[in-house]
Protein: Butyryl-CoA:acetate CoA-transferase
Organism: Anaerostipes butyraticus
Amino acid sequence: MSFAEEYQKKLTTADEAVKVIKSGDRLEYGWCVTTPDALDVALAKRMPELENIQIHGGILMKPLAIAQIENPADHFTWNSWHMGGIERKWINEGFSYYAPIRYSELPGYYRDYLPRTNVAMMQVAPMDQHGYFSLGPSASHLCAMMEKADCIIVEVNENMPRCLGGFEDSVHISKVDMIVEGDNPPIAELGGGGAATDVDKAVAKQIVDQIPNGACLQLGIGGMPNAVGSLIAESDLKDLGVHTEMYVDAFVDIAKAGKITGANKSIDRYRQTYAFAAGTKKLYDYLDNNPECMSAPVNYTNNIATISSLDNFISINNAVDIDLYGQISSESSGTRQISGAGGQLDFVMGAYLSKGGKSFVCLSSTFTDKKGVTHSRILPTLHPGSVVTDTRANAHYIVTEYGMVNMKGLSTWERAEALISIAHPDFRDQLIKDAEAAKIWRRSNK
C-alpha cells in the first residue's frame, strides 16, 4: 500500500474521530501552536456527554471550544505543562491546574512514569512524499508522548510550517490511527508585547555589552529578552549561534541582520536549535523548510550537559520577583500561578557551566498595580506561596534598569547589598531596614 493510499484509508472527519474518546480517558491536546482546532470543535459537541476527561497541553495561543461549554469543570480537567493567559483564567473557573515540571525531563515523564495516553491529537503539517507529518514548531515532547498513546489523531493544517530537525520532529503515517483535514486556520500568533520600554532598553544595553562575538544565545519570552534581541540585531556582533528552548521573533531579526552563522558552535554547527517556537507569521515563514533551523526534543535542547558544552553560552530570561537572598521567582506571585518553570533553571545552570558562559535574569525594579500603586520587584523575602524557580545558589547575573550584579560567591550580606544597589531608589532605605531585621545587613558605605 502506498503512503497516499494509506492516507485515504485513515482519513476521516473530526466528528467521527472524536467518537473514540470516552469518559475517564487521558487525552493529549498537542503543545502551543499544534493544539487542535477542528478536533477541538468536534470534541466540544461531545464533551457534555463525557466526564472525568484528563487533558494535557500547554501554552494555549487561542481560546478552546471545549472551554465554552456549560460547566466545563463537570466534564474535564485541563492539566497545563506551562500556563499562559487563557489557562490562568480557567484556574478561577475550577478546571485548570498547573503541572509542575522540569521541562527538560518531560519526555522522560511520558516514557517512564505517566500512565498511558488514551488519545493524542494535534495539528501537523501536510504529509511529505516519505509519509512523514512534521510536528511544526513544536517538537518539544510530542514524539515521546505519542510513543505511549493508544490512539493518535493528526489534524492536517496546510498553514503549519514544515520544521526540519535532527530527530523526533515528525510522526510517520504508519504510527497514525486517524487523519483529519481541518479548515486550515492561520497558525496562532504570539505578539512581541509591544515596543520596548525605556526600562527594557536600559536592561538590554547592559546585557548586550556583555556578549562576545561567537556567543551562543538563548532568549526567553517577554519584553526584555526581545529588547536584547533588537539591540543585538543593530549591533556589530557577529558569528552568533542559537541554542534555545523557545524560538522567538527576535532570532529572526538577528538572523536577517546577518549576525547568526553558528560557525563557533561545538555541536549542531551552523544550525539554530530550538524545542518549540511561537511568534508572528514572520517567524513561521522563516522556519518553514529552513535547513538552518533545527527543531529538536526538549530533553536535548534543555539538557544541562548539552548547554554547557557550547562555549560562551548567553542565557537571558525574565523574573517576576527576587528576594534579598537571591531567590528568583519567575512563575508565580504568591499562590497566583503566572506561567511555569519551563527550562529557566536548566539554562541558568548550563550557561554558568559553559566556558565563558553567563546567565542573565532580568526584571524591572518596580511594577504598578491596577490601583496605581508602585511596588518593588526586589523583596525582603518572596511573597508567601511564591515558587522558587532558581535557587539562591544558582543565581548568576541579576539585571534591572539600575544595574547588574553577579550573585556567585556572595555571602548573605553581600547579596543583600548588591541587590539593594539595583533596586529602585525609592525602596532602598526600606530594603536596608528589612535586611537589618533579617540579620543579613552589614554596615557598609551606605
In short: The longest strand covers residues 117-124. DSSP finds 15 helices and 25 strands in the chain.
